[in-house]
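Open question from group meeting: does this chain pack into something compact, or does most of it stay loose? Before anyone orders reagents, we agreed to write out a predicted structure and look at it together. Recording both the input and the output here so the notebook holds the full record.
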Amino acid sequence: MNFEIRDATPADLPAVLAMNEAAVPYVNSLDLARMKGLHEQAAWFRVAAAQPGDGLAAFLIGLTPDAKAIDDGQKEVAMMVKQLTR
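Structure tokens returned:
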């Protein structure tokens, strides 16, 4: 199966939010305003769809270590990534 991977747009955020909420408690629960904040500050924010028009299958958000983290756990992960990429 081929996937189209592209930059997320603001129109994608409700679908991304639905995928995120389906994964709670393994990820933090967010509201649309917080998801928009992540989109605005992300170094990159990608989505994948199996076929154009099929809806989204996955998303991936990359934050820099200095990004405003939602919680301390995310800040710790960002710091570890920074150390690993030096």
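Observations to bring back to the group:
Strands lie at 4-7, 44-49, 58-62.
The chain has a mean pLDDT of 81.
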